[in-house]
Automatic annotation (TrEMBL):
Keywords: Cytoplasm, Mitochondrion. Residues 169-354 form the DML1/Misato tubulin domain. InterPro entries: DML1/Misato, DML1/Misato_tubulin, Misato_II_tubulin-like, Tubulin/FtsZ_GTPase_sf. The lineage of its organism: Eukaryota, Metazoa, Chordata, Craniata, Vertebrata. This is Protein misato homolog 1. The keyword Coiled coil does not apply. It comes from Atractosteus spatula. Residues 6-120 form the Misato Segment II tubulin-like domain. Involved in the regulation of mitochondrial distribution and morphology. Required for mitochondrial fusion and mitochondrial network formation. Belongs to the misato family.
Length: 590
C-alpha cells in the first residue's frame, strides 16, 4: 500500500535563512532519483512532501520546491525574481512613442563558474569532455520501455566530476542555488535594501510593521493560498527565519498568520543566526541581542515547535567559541560554509516527517517534544557520524563511554546530568548490515549494545544509557546525506568518499560524495542557562541605548513584557533537581 504523502510548505525569511535554505534544497535535489529502472529500491524519503509537480506554458513537466522565500531588494544578484522555468522566451513590447528610442542596459552581475555551468546544462551543453554514450543508451532504453528519462543536474554533475571552490565568489545565496524555483516562490521586499547603510531591516518592530502592511500581507497570503490549495494532505509548515534582524519581527507576523489561518497544522520554526555578521558594530550587536530575545518569545509562541539553529556558542553578548566538528575543516564565520553545516543537520532532523515508512506527521513530533508548554527545542548533530569503515554501530557508540558523539547547534551545550524531557534521534547513512554486531557463535558481547538485534534498538539503548528516564523516538534510514556540487568540500582527509573514517587519508582531489549523520532534537534542561543568559543580557541594557530600536516600532511596554515572558520560558527548562539560579526575588514571583 502506497504511503500517503503529507505535504509541507516551506518559508524562508531572511538572507541567512536563504543561505541555509539554498543548501537544504540543493541537498534535496541531490537526493532525487529519476531512474525509471523498476528494480531500483524505493526511496526512503517522500520527495513529494517538499516538491510539487507543474507544467510550463510549453508543456514541460517541472518539479519545484513548495517554497516561499522572502528577502530584500538587491539580494537576488543574477537570479530573476520570476525564475526562468515559466518564461515564454519572447519579450512583448508595446510602444506608443513613434520617435527615436534609445535603450540603456545595465550589465548583469557576473556569474561564478558553477552558475555558468548550470546555464550550459540548461542549454544542453556538456560540462566536460568524455564519453557519455552509456548514459545516452540508458536514456534511449528507458524511453523505448515507456519510462521517463531525464538528464538531471545530478547525473550531469556526477559525470563531469567537477569541483568548485566558491568561497571567494559567493556574495548572496542565489550564487550557489542549483534548483529552479516557481515564479510564486520568490518574494522581494522592496521597502528595504540588502546592501548599504540606509533603509535596512534591522529592528523587530520594522518587521512587525511590514507584516501588517496591506501590500506585503496580501502578496504573502496570495502565495500561501497558491501552494496550500493544491495540497491534498497538508501536514504543516516549516519556517526558516533570521533571528537577529528585522526578519524576526516579520517571522512573528508570518507564524501568527499561519497559526490563525491553518490551525491544527504543524508549524516548525527554525531560528537562524550566523556566527558573525558582516560590517557589524556595537549598536548593531545590541539590535541583534534584542531581536533574538523578542523573536524567540514570539516565534515560539506562534509555532508548534521552535528551535534555534546556529553555530554560535550562545545568544548573549559574549558567546562561547563557535561549535566545531572533529572531522570538518570549515570557516564558521563564512556564511557559505556555516549554512552548509546547518543545512546538512536540518536535512537529517526533518527525516521523521518525510519518511516513506516508519515516520510520522509534524504534529506527532511536536506533541512528543513540546510537553508542558516547552515549545523550544535544542538541536545536536554528529556531522559526519564518526564511524570507521568495517566496524559496526555498537562498536562506534560504545567507544564514546560516558560522552556523546553530537555537538550543539542551538547555542546551548549538553549539561551531562542525564536529564531530558524528550528526544527525537535520527541516524542516516549506515547500511543495515553494520547496524548490529556480527558476533561469532559463543562470543561474549563486549557491551550491552552488542546484544541488540536492530539498529533502532542500539540507538535507543545508547540514548537511555545517557538519559535513563527520557522518552525517545528513534529513526533510521540507510540512505546517507548525499553531497554534490556546490556543497563545499569541508571534510578532513580522514574521511573516505562515503563519509566513513578510513585508515589511509583520502586523495587530495577526491571529493566526499556522501556522509552519515546522527542528529538529536531535544526538549532539554540545557536550554535553561541559554535562555537565561539571553534574558539577562537583554534586560541589562540601558533603555537610553535602545531609543533608536524602540523608535523603529516596538513599544517599551511590549519589550518589557516579552523579556518577562522569556524569563518565564527559561524557568520551564529548569532540571528536575536544579534550584533556581535567578535569585530569591525571581523565585518568589514564580
Amino acid at each position: 500500500m502506497a504511503s500517503v504523502c503529507r505535504e509541507v510548505v516551506t518559508l524562508q525569511l531572511g538572507h541567512f535563512s536563504n543561505y541555509v535554505g539554498t543548501h537544504w534544497w540543493n541537498l534535496q535535489d541531490a537526493a532525487l532519483c529519476y531512474d525509471p529502472d523498476s528494480h531500483s529500491p524505493p526511496s526512503e524519503l517522500l520527495s513529494d512532501v517538499l516538491f510539487r509537480e507543474g507544467v510550463t506554458l510549453g508543456g514541460q513537466t517541472t518539479y519545484t520546491p513548495r517554497l516561499i522565500t522572502l528577502d530584500l531588494k538587491g539580494s537576488l544578484s543574477t537570479l530573476r525574481q520570476e525564475g526562468s522555468l515559466y518564461e515564454t522566451g519572447k519579450e512583448v513590447r508595446t510602444f506608443t512613442w513613434e520617435g527615436e528610442v534609445m535603450t540603456h542596459r545595465e550589465s548583469p552581475p557576473a556569474k561564478n563558474s558553477f552558475l555558468q555551468d548550470l546555464d550550459r546544462l540548461d542549454e544542453g551543453q556538456l560540462l566536460a569532455e568524455g564519453d557519455f554514450s552509456a548514459t545516452q543508451a540508458q536514456e534511449s532504453e528507458a524511453l523505448s520501455a515507456g519510462g521517463i528519462a531525464m538528464a538531471t543536474v545530478n547525473t550531469s554533475l556526477e559525470r563531469a566530476q567537477k569541483r568548485y571552490s566558491l568561497e571567494g565568489s559567493v556574495r548572496v545565496w542565489s550564487d550557489f542555488l542549483r534548483v529552479h524555483l516557481h515564479p510564486r516562490s520568490m518574494m522581494v521586499i522592496n521597502q528595504y535594501n540588502h546592501d548599504g547603510e540606509s533603509n535596512r531591516l534591522e529592528a523587530f518592530g520594522q518587521g512587525e510593521a511590514l507584516c501588517r502592511s496591506a501590500t506585503v500581507l496580501e502578496e504573502l497570503e496570495d502565495r500561501l493560498h497558491f501552494f496550500v490549495e493544491e495540497c491534498d494532505y497538508l501536514q504543516g509548515f516549516q519556517v526558516l527565519c533570521d533571528l537577529q534582524d528585522g526578519f524576526s519581527g516579520l517571522g512573528s507576523g508570518v507564524t501568527e498568520l499561519l497559526h490563525d489561518a491553518y490551525g491544527g497544522r504543524g508549524i516548525f520554526t527554525w531560528g537562524l543566526a550566523p556566527v558573525r555578521h558582516p560590517d557589524t558594530s556595537p549598536v548593531k550587536e545590541l539590535y541583534h541581542l534584542v531581536n533574538s530575545a523578542l523573536g524567540l518569545v514570539s516565534l515560539s509562541n506562534h509555532s508548534s515547535l521552535f528551535c534555534p539553529l546556529t553555530l554560535r556558542g550562545g545568544l548573549g553578548r559574549c558567546p562561547a567559541p563557535p561549535t566545531s566538528f572533529p572531522h570538518l575543516q570549515f570557516d564558521s564565520s563564512l556564511w557559505y560554509h556555516s549554512s552548509a553545516v546547518l543545512a546538512a543537520a536540518l536535512d537529517t532532523m526533518t527525516v521523521p516527517y518525510r519518511q516513506t515508512q516508519g515516520g510520522g506527521p509534524m504534529w506527532q513530533l511536536s506533541d512528543a517534544l513540546a510537553v508542558s508548554g516547552r515549545k523550544v527545542a535544542a538541536a545536536y548533530s554528529a556531522l559526519p557520524f564518526p564511524m570507521m569503515l568495517g566496524t559496526s554501530l555498537p562498536d562506534t557508540l560504545s567507544s564514546y563511554g560516558d560522552s556523546l558523539p553530537w555537538r550543539p547547534l542551538s547555542a546551548c551545550g549538553e549539561l551531562g546530568d542525564g536529564q531530558s524531557f524528550g528526544q527525537s534521534v535520527t541516524l542516516r547513512g549506515i547500511e543495515a548490515q553494520s547496524l548490529v554486531s556480527a558476533l561469532a557463535p559463543g562470543t561474549r558481547p563486549s557491551t550491552p549494545l552488542h546484544t541488540c538485534s536492530s539498529g533502532e534498538e542500539v540507538l535507543a539503548s545508547f540514548v537511555w544509557r545517557h538519559y535513563p528516564s527520557t522518552p525517545v523516538a528513534v529513526h533510521w534510514i540507510s540512505s546517507p546525506c548525499k553531497l554534490t556540487p556546490p556543497f563545499p568540500q569541508i571534510f578532513s582527509p580522514t574521511l573516505g568518499v562515503t563519509g566513513l573514517l578510513e585508515p589511509s587519508p583520502r586523495a587530495p582531489q577526491t571529493a566526499v560524495g556522501s556522509v552519515p549523520v546522527l542528529s538529536s532534537l531535544q526538549s532539554t534542561p540545557a536550554l535553561h542557562p541559554c535562555l537565561t543568559d539571553l534574558w539577562r543580557a537583554a534586560s541589562a541594557q540601558d533603555p537610553r541605548r535602545l531609543a533608536s530600536f524602540l523608535g523603529a516600532g516596538t513599544e517599551q511596554g511590549d519589550l518589557q513584557e516579552a523579556l518577562e515572558d522569556l524569563r518565564t520560558l527559561a524557568q520551564c527548562y529548569r532540571g528536575i533537581l536544579e534550584p533556581s539560579p535567578l535569585g530569591s526575588s525571581e523565585d518568589e514571583s514564580d
